[in-house]
């Protein structure tokens, strides 16, 4: 063997070894499946626990749901159409005497626009608090907070104990005109909150947990149901604000299109009731059949999943 061939053969052997399961490129695909549960490692008091993490982290579950052996995973929600997927950048929300703007951008992005608004309008700014998302002027307080979706914000104009309608109208036009701006404030990053909409299973029942009070949850859910529950499969039919109820007609996915080959047409819609209930500073949404018949967990989960998808 020539001297030129020997180095080439060695390099080839090393490359092949590196591609094997025991070689340089370590394959971890089976580790989750083969791993055994072990107690967490106890660190010395001199160590900072924040600097360490599990080698194979598992996200914390927000549900006590355990699948049975015959459990069939629900099909994913269909992608929104282009018409449904387009959200207004700024929209007015109202519940009782309360009014605010729902903005389709994260609070850190809206904060920079609010500062520009105050400057361009020549407002007498007395205090700016990025941590609270508040701009205090001699006329009132302009504030931004996290909306229900992770990429949404709520903007308010307070004048004394009431709402400044003229400020909201001016802000609505200003924010709409600046929808293409992409600036983000690092100082206002703490205003953002994730995981605002959670579908949970508790004690055999399903519910949607909204990280908003009932007034704001009602206004947002009403807007989204009017916009998205308007098809032959899911339709908002009525509402009762005093009871915190929305009435919808819903056809389960397994009954749509007549089943296999589309024979027989769609099933009859089921009258369903969505009920909102406040719990601390959150709102819980549950679903049950309006005719008094037992509501299967699978049906409640499917409908609530469709509701939650409009809010994410």
Topology:
Elements: H1 5-19, H2 31-34, H3 82-85, E1 90-95, E2 98-103, H4 107-120, E3 125-129, E4 134-137, E5 141-146, E6 153-159, E7 162-163, H5 165-177, E8 197-202, E9 205-210, H6 214-228, E10 234-240, E11 245-250, E12 270-279, E13 282-289, H7 297-311
Antiparallel strand pairs: 1-2, 2-6, 3-4, 4-5, 5-6, 6-7, 8-9, 9-13, 10-11, 11-12, 12-13
Protein model, in words:
This protein has 2 domains: 82-191, Outer membrane protein assembly factor BamC (TATA-Binding Protein, 2-Layer Sandwich), CATH 3.30.310; 197-311, Outer membrane protein assembly factor BamC (TATA-Binding Protein, 2-Layer Sandwich). The protein is built from 7 helices and 13 strands. The chain is globular. Helices cover 26% and strands 25% of the residues. It has helices at 5-19, 31-34, 82-85, 107-120, 165-177, 214-228, 297-311, and strands at 90-95, 98-103, 125-129, 134-137, 141-146, 153-159, 162-163, 197-202, 205-210, 234-240, 245-250, 270-279, 282-289. The protein is an alpha+beta fold and 312 residues long. Mean pLDDT is 79; it is low at 79-85 and 259-264. The strands form 2 sheets. Strands 1, 2, 3, 4, 5, 6 and 7 form a 7-stranded antiparallel sheet that branches.
In short:
By secondary structure, the chain is of the alpha+beta class. The protein contains seven helices and 13 strands.
Comma- or semicolon-separated keywords:
six-stranded antiparallel sheet; 13 strands; TATA-Binding Protein; globular; alpha+beta
- Please report the distance between the alpha carbons of the first and last residues: 66 Å
Q: What is the percentage of strand-forming residues?
A: 25-35%
CATH topology type of the largest domain: TATA-Binding Protein
Question: What integer value in Å does the Rg equal?
Answer: 27 Å
- Total helices: the number is 7
Assembly context of the chains: single chain
**General form:** globular
CATH architecture group name of the largest domain: 2-Layer Sandwich
Strand runs, count: 13
Structural class: alpha+beta
Query: Level of helix content?
Result: 25-40%
CATH level 1 name of the largest domain: Alpha Beta
**Secondary-structure element pattern, one letter each:** HHHEEHEEEEEHEEHEEEEH
- Poorly predicted ranges: 79-85, 259-264
CATH superfamily of the largest domain: Outer membrane protein assembly factor BamC
Query: Structurally, how many domains make up the residues?
Result: 2
């Amino acid at each position: 063997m020539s001297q030129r061939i020997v180095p080439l053969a060695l390099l080839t052997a090393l490359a092949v070894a590196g591609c094997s399961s025991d070689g340089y490129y370590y394959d971890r695909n089976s580790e989750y499946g083969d791993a055994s549960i072990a107690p967490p490692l106890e660190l010395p008091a001199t160590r900072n626990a924040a600097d360490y993490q599990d080698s194979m982290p598992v996200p914390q579950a927000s549900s006590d749901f355990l699948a049975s052996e015959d459990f069939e995973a629900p099909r994913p929600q269909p992608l929104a159409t282009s018409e449904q997927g387009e959200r207004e950048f700024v929209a007015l929300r109202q519940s009782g005497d309360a009014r605010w703007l729902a903005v389709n951008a994260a609070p850190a992005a809206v904060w920079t626009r609010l500062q520009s608004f105050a400057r361009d309008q020549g407002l007498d700014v007395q205090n700016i608090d990025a941590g609270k998302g508040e701009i205090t002027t001699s006329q009132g307080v302009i504030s931004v907070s996290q909306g229900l979706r992770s990429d949404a914000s709520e903007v308010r104009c307070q004048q004394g104990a009431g709402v400044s309608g003229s400020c909201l109208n001016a802000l609505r036009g200003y924010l709409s005109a600046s929808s293409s701006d992409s600036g983000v404030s690092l100082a206002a990053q703490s205003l953002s909150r994730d995981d605002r909409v959670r579908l949970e299973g508790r004690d055999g029942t399903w519910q949607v947990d909204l990280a908003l009070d009932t007034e704001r949850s009602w206004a947002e859910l009403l807007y989204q149901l009017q916009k998205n529950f308007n098809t032959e499969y899911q339709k908002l039919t009525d509402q009762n604000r005093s009871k915190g109820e929305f009435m919808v007609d819903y056809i389960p996915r397994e009954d749509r299109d007549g089943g296999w080959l589309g024979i027989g047409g769609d099933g009859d819609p089921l009258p369903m009731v969505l009920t909102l209930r406040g719990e601390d500073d959150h709102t819980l949404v549950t679903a049950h059949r309006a005719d008094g018949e037992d509501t299967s967990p699978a049906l409640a989960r499917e409908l609530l999943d469709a509701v939650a998808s409009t809010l994410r």
